[in-house]
Amino acid sequence: MHLAPKVQRIITWRESIATLPDVVFFDIMRMYLGEVKTPFNKQKLIEELSSFLRKEENKRTIVRLLDAGDLKLLAAIRFIPHVSQRKLESFFARSCPVASLYERIVNLEERLIVFTHTDAGSGERVFAINPLLEDTIAPFVSLSQLLPSPDAPVQRAAPPLLLSPAQLCSFISYIVEHPDICKADGTLKKKNAAELEEMFGSTENLPLLFAALCNLGLLREAEKGWGVDWAQLDAFATLVPQAQYAYLCAASAGHFSRGTMQANAQLLLDALYSIPDGGYSRETLLWLSFLLREKSGDGDGIGQGRFARMLAGRGSVQSTGTGGDGGIMDSMVDGCLAFGVLYICGQCGGEDILALSPAFVEAKETAGADMGSPLPISVDAGFCVTVLPGLSFAQLLPLMKFLSPVRCDTAATFSLCRASAMRAFDAGVSPADISGALQRYSSFALPQNLTVSVQEWYTAYTSAALYKGYVLKVSADKAVFVEKSPLVSRHIAFKLSPEIFLMDFKDDREAQAIIKRCGLDFIGSVKGCGTERVVTGQLPLQCGGQQLLDTGDVPPAAPCTEEEREATLRTLRQALESMSLSPEQAEELGERINRRIVVNAEQLRGESVRFEKLEAGGMDYAGKLHIIDSALGAKSLVEVETEDAAEPFAGTPVSISRKENDTEFVLALVPDGTERVFSVAKAVRVKKLRSVGLQF
């Protein structure tokens, strides 16, 4: 029988209540229904609890007592798919101490607003909003509580210049001419730093750009330093500009596998397109990234594990991104700021507000016909080439094979010299290619002496040659057979001597296959040849032009004002004061009011109290020890405050060891399980945290 979704959710909630440990189950029943009399029926008690929650006045009061922290947590539970305890820990890792997060979750469970159940797909315990309250709560919960826009108008600043194709190409061209640009530790050599300072005006972000190029495989270690992989660069240039920037920013965070690099770059790109015009704080941007990851379906299994590490550890140039102290997403944001993709447009509440550069959104490939007039390149008689803005990375890259960088500002200046031309000839560029590439983007005819000089350099270049490749050596009587064979002769690149041929085989496999097909059984296996190299390039990215998460036009209204919430609590406290109760009963019921468990005066029943000491501190040695003992037996979470730490520690007690003048206990700290020893006597405060659906 097929049930309506809401009916199924109600059944799931009822089952979650029924399967609670008996101690927790009866505590909840006493708090809402009063003393449980025997004999009892669990299902009947759950039905009575459901009736309590269905009353409109009770629902209104429950919602009225929600504060901003409750609503933010409820928004996370509502909008993060299959939201587990692990996901909530990752999501709030930067903004909320783990003990405070657990305490708020447990409080919402005690108030019957959220519950846990086993997810059918993953088998993991996940949180959900109580279906009996979800319709009443929904109007007050939205994505804008997780992705808040700046509260007040920020002081907007002009965006800095985006890393231009000319700057990127100039840096690549410089590395081609100076392969030993770096010291052994990866920092720029003093001489190279000075030259780059003169060329770019600043070297502040060049080490990060260098790291990104290395991590993308666009630069490779060579015998004398670093070399440019032109094939990989050509493949990279085929990506749209936004994807190029996303990959550079992602690669600035660390070295990853090809698939992981694509996932990180795509996540970053999606996040960038989801930033509103008013900008986001860095923390909000991290939350946005988390939600986008979950929305894409990469929130379970390996993907979620990697994202948790992204929030937990910063990757370095050579790292895998699983350690450190800043977070990979943080590092990618740093890359965006360094390369001008993001900029600080102002401040709000002491936080920098980050906005997306308009130049990034507007970046596009430019066809020759779209560049207008005059065209962006001019060449003077001294072979000085000036490149004005307008050419894309794909259009500029071929020019870097024969141009040498001089200065890069708004306009980039290059020179064409004998050394740079020789470099181009080595890459298979002909004099006609050089003249054609320059003329294509120039409004005026090239200087005649440039064409003549390039041809003279080429004549000198071809007067001698140094070859590297497959060499076929045969005896004199077999040479004719090789030259006459149709399959073999077409692969002869150059006849070095009557018995020695330079072949253009792509790899060992092709060489062996052709030899076998020709029946040249007198030729053995390939000797002394390198391995085949495949150019993979970067995987394409989806570049959207609109926000991928709809946060709504306006934030939802608050359930009530703070004054109205306090008035509700004050009314309940006055009702409690009018009752004749023991001090212990009055204290416990007052604590329930403070925890907002009590929503009407009928819940103020003295017989429902089962007093348990949950907190002790200072000189109360016996009280602190009792709480630790109790938490050890119940496997409950405790919070320990010490004098030498700014934040309290939270964890589950593992063992207690009694010493001569003190007692030590071991906590398995959350969320990573690291064990730490504490002294009962030296603990400033020990607090046992309630646990309903949390798993420690």
Tell me the radius of gyration. 35 Å
Parts with pLDDT < 50 across at least 5 consecutive residues: 300-326
DSSP E strands, number: 20
User: Count of helices?
Assistant: 28
Helix content: 40-55%
Structural class: alpha+beta
| Largest sheet descriptor | 6 strands, antiparallel
Order of strands across the main sheet: 15-20-16-17-18-19
N/C terminus separation:
37 Å
Mean pLDDT: 85
In percent terms, what proportion of residues is strand?
5-15%
Instruction: Describe the global form.
Output: elongated
Description:
It is a single chain. With 696 residues, the chain is of the alpha+beta class. It is built from 28 helices and 20 strands. The strands form six sheets. It has a six-stranded antiparallel β-sheet, with helices on both faces. Strands 8-9-11-10 form a four-stranded antiparallel β-sheet.
